[in-house]
Every structure is written in C-alpha cells, then in structure tokens.
# Entry
Amino acid sequence: MDDLKNPLKIVFVGGHHTPALAVMASLAAKLKTAGKPYKFYWIGHKYSMWGDKKESAEYREVTALNIPFYDLKAGKLYRTYHPLKLLRLPLGFLQALLYIRRLSPQLTVSFGGYLAVPVALVSWFRRIPVFTHEQAVSPGLANRIIAHFARKVLISFPESQQYFPKNKSVLTGNPLRKEIFEVNQPISFPLDREKYPTIYITGGKQGGHTINRTVGEILPELLSHFNIIHQCGSSTVYGDFQYLELEAGKLPDSLSDGYILKDYFAASQVGSVFAKADFVLSRSGANIVSELAALGKPAVLIPIPWSSGNEQENNAKVLVKAGLAVILPQTELSGERLLKTCLEFSGRLKEFIPERATRAPVELSAAEIIATELFMAIR
# Structure
C-alpha cells in the first residue's frame, strides 16, 4: 500500500524525445512486471524555437501519453548573443531547481541537448543519480558536460567511447521507436502517379528551413519525376508550411496529386511513410540515421553544417560507409543541384540495396538495453 502512495519517480529530459519515449515504454514494462508503481515526468521545450507560437512535436507526443510535461526555458551555452536569450541561462537553472525540488525523483535520465544541462546538474547536486544517453557519433557540448555528473553515459556508437570516461560508458545503441516498422495506414497516390518513385523529405520534426525553401523553388521540376511526401516542420518562425502550401497551390492537378505536405507525422504514421518511400532526403541527425540504418532505406543526406563537433556529418558518414547514402553538403545546395542529385540517386537505387543495412551499426534492442540499465539502478 505504501508503494502505491510513494511510486518511483523518474524524470526524463533532453533534446531528443523520440528515443526517450522508446526507453520509457521498455522501462514501464519492466516496472509493471516487477510490480513497482512508477511515475514518469518530462522536462522539455513546449515550443521548438524562440518566438514560436505552435506547440512542439515533443510537447504533443509526450502529453498524448499523459506524461506530465514541464516547460523549461533554458538558454544555450553557445551561439547565444541576444540579451533576452542570455537571461535564459540563469532562468533555466532556477526552473530546473524548482522542478527537481518539487518532483523529488529517484532518477534523472538525460537525452542530451542544452536543455538537459541544468536539470542534470541540479539532480547531481541533490544526490539524484543521473544517466545520460548520447545518440550521435560525436557528442555535443551538453553531454560532454553532463558526463562529469552522470553515473553512466550510454552511447550509441563505439566511436563515441573516446569522448567519455571508460568506467562510465556503456555501449547500448540508439533506441528506435517500434512504429517505424509498422505500416498502419498505407499511403497511395493516384494510379497515374504510381509510376514515379517516391521521396520522403524531412528535416526532422522542427523541419529543415534551408531544405524546405530549396524544395519549394523547384517543386514543379521535382514532381515531374517523383512523388513527394514532405514533413516540413511545425515552426511558425520561418513559416515553411505556409510557404510550401502556397507553392503547392500553384501546381496543376497532374503534379499536385503527387505531393503530400505535413508539418509532422505522428508516430503511428511514420512507418507507412518510410514504407512508401523509395528513398529519403533528410538532415542527418542521429535518430533519422539510426532509423534509416535499421530499415535499410537509401538516403540523400544534407548535414547541418553548424552542428556541434561536426556531429551531423559524422552521423552521415556512418550510412555512406554502410553503402546506404550519399552526402550533399549544404554549401553546395541549390535547386539545380538538388534536382540533379535526386535524379542521379534515383537512377542508382539498385546499388543501395536494403541488405547492406546489416553493415550499419544499429542495435535493434537498444531501448531494452537502456531500460535494463535504468531498472538495475532503481530496483
């Protein structure tokens, strides 16, 4: 009876909620099997960007699972010059202190990103065990800092070991959402469009502004050769969804019938999107790279050039080495170059066979491995 009144309380925090949700599901199953009452909490961004007016995919997906969500207005540790943004640095630590004091968790689990730094530091100061997970090959500044306070650093790639203390590091892989393997809502185009290969274009749930604008510039030309499923992000700062809607509205029916535009795809839809796509045009964040590797899905990758420690380019090279991708540097990106690259890549798809995914380092049971590490810490 006392256990029911005093459940295990676990705080999750970080910039990457997709792998965190996969771990939550595995950990919840373990705790239920063990008969241990629990309560999960999420500390994150209600809005994706400074000045955004639309709720983030993170907020929508976490709250849809009835997990209490605490909005943290932390500032970045670098590239922060706006005076009001600088004020968010101390504000983030103050908010983190208030949240951790109020929740009094038995464990804090970080999934990286500058948002996690104040939460991890406050947790450590209050003697709450901290575990952090690094999704990328090259860790960002946040996880390099958090590693000093963490009990364990869970890494996705063997190459990441060099950045962290060996006595703390555990190779787990990057957790995958099970929905990428599920085709719940098959996607189809009109019969006269089914002869074209399909590209899934995504810059992540925040979108890729540069990619979105470049695609918009050559939308008629692309649709003359491909069907397109386009996740452009929900940010209102750039207005990419509205821009692409306007561009799509100018198209004749023969082309617009081959274009599906969404701000973001829910977890229940993403498996159907991947299944329909012949190849993917994307950024190269750790999560999309892991999902592409697991699915054996060919991709044209455009790494963010300013990512910390050249993180995205290093992630992309994993798939290039595995024979699943080519890299199109953003410095070379233009409408003409993008169209040419997609046409050339489409003509070579047989070279990027799914069987080659076995050469990419992806651990399909990563969520279970991490959940076991966490369970052992709190049992």
The mean pLDDT is 89. Residues 2-175+363-378 form a domain with the Rossmann fold fold (CATH 3.40.50.2000).
